[in-house]
Amino acid sequence: MQLPTWSEGSALIVAVAELLRALQWPIVVLIIARFFRGDIQKLLTRVRRGSLFGAEVELEQALDLLEEGTSAAGDDDAMDIPMIPAGELPPDRQDEEVIDLARLRMTVAKERDILRTAAVSPRAALMLLSSEIEATLRHLAEDDDVEDRMPGDARFMPVSQITRGLTTAGAIDERTEDNIENLWKARALVLHEGQGEDDDVLRAVDSGLMILRALSSIDPSLAAPASEAGTRETPP
Q1: Spatial separation of the C-alpha atoms in residues 212 and 190, rounded to whole Å
Q2: Average pLDDT over residues 8-37
Q3: Spatial contact of 180 and 207, defined as CB atoms under 8 Å apart
Q4: What 3-state DSSP class applies to 149?
Q5: Most buried by CB count within 10 Å: which residue of 86, 94, 99, 166?
Q6: φ, ψ at 143 (rounded to 5°)
């Protein structure tokens, strides 16, 4: 076997050195990834969350305001289930109590469907809930006792404009309007921007159910004009 010459040996050494130099960083990266995998995953999570920090803070603020507003509204406006059978009520109140009870049962059925959906997919439940709230708002706006006070046709209005019109018409109060605004803000961050964990979405669903319950209990015939309801002025 013929041994390589000095020049050939030198060339081989240089080639091996170049190969090691090219491989050193991939090898180092593999070693780091192997022994520090858990720490790297935590770091990447922090970087990802950090890049979305502003949106997460906005979502947290919307959820906090939503919970605060709906809790206060729940203390004042909680629906009571009639304890007296309608047949035992005075004749002039029977129809009213039957309607209230039917409305309550329908709301409970909607809530049950939303909660069942939330057990499978909180985000799907939020979509279903917001759809029910929007449908209820449009139904209120189209009621004969409210429609004439609305600034336009509710069928072609966004939710924010409907709630403003309902507040002006005296069908809902400013706190309910604010609660719906905060729910829709949280909804946009969750559904359109992918923000929040399941716990955050469930917070929005829980508060949204209270909004739906309050809206479902409204009697449009009791709506007061804006001058009587004491609502805030619409900015120019």
Answers
A1: 19
A2: 65
A3: no
A4: coil
A5: 166
A6: -70, 145
Instruction: Tell me the residue type at 175.
Output: R
Cα 214 from chain centre: 17
Contacts of 183 (CB under 8 A, 6+ apart): 62, 66, 130, 133, 204, 207, 208, 211
User: Is the Cβ–Cβ distance between 204 and 151 less than 8 Å?
Assistant: no
198 token code pair: 């399941």
Phi, psi of 95 (to 5 degrees): -60, -40
Q: Which tops the pLDDT comparison, 86 or 39? A: 39
- For the entire predicted model, the pTM comes to 0.63
Short-list 117, 135, 134, CA closest to 126: 117
Kindly tell me if the per-residue pLDDT of 115 is higher than 80. yes
- How far apart CA 100 and CA 50 sit, in angstroms, is 49
Query: pLDDT tens for residues 125-176?
Result: 999 999 999 999 999 999 888 888 888 888 889 999 999 999 998 899 999 9
Listing DSSP states for 88-134 in one string gives GS-HHHHHHHHHHHHHHHHHHHHHHHHHHHHHH-HHHHHHHHHHHHH
Q: Does residue 194 surpass a pLDDT of 80?
A: yes
CA gap 89, 98 in Å, rounded: 10
